[in-house]
Request: fold
Amino acid sequence: MTHSILRFVFILFLVIKPLSAAADNTILILGDSLSAAYGLKQEQGWVKLLQDKYDAEQSNIELINASISGETSGGALRRLDALLEQYEPTHVLIELGANDGLRGFPVNKMQANLTSLIEKSQATNAMTALMEIYIPPNYGPRYSKMFTDSFTQVSENTNAYLMDFFVLNIAGQSGLMQNDGLHPNKKAQPLIRDEMYESIKQWLNKD
Reply:
């Protein structure tokens, strides 16, 4: 009887341990349409492609994609508490701000929202990364510079990791963009996956 119980416990340990190891790095992605596979099937988006790559490598990284098309920094802030409670992420990646800029929202308000997103995440001991975002130049050089500089400022003030904008080298290539000129197409998604694979690796190694 005792041997049977010990054997059961040993088998249970072997089963549970790999499952827990698979969630060593749970990354919550708070993004907008650029991460929500806008105009594409979910399985075609860079987040799903990257998760498939991690799974193929048997990596201990799980991506939780909480991105919503049209999301603003304020909208994400209203959702964050519930997401942190539900997923208990070890890492939070914030890819937000584009819609704030496109709608001409005050830069200082966006900065305050991004700061709150980071501080709320850090309060749960999650490591945080903030992606630097660019907006189209037709908003004028002054607003565009103030907007982009905000991400460096927020990153420095909160000690969040500043991540390069993953669309910067793709946006100028018409063959990689959808007809609206704002969203990467299906062909661009594997390129973004590969860039984010390297960016996330650098982030995790820095931690």
Q: What stands out?
A: The radius of gyration is 19 Å. Strands lie at 25-31, 61-65, 91-95, 127-131, 161-163. The helical segments are 2-21, 46-56, 73-87, 98-102, 107-122, 141-158, 189-206.
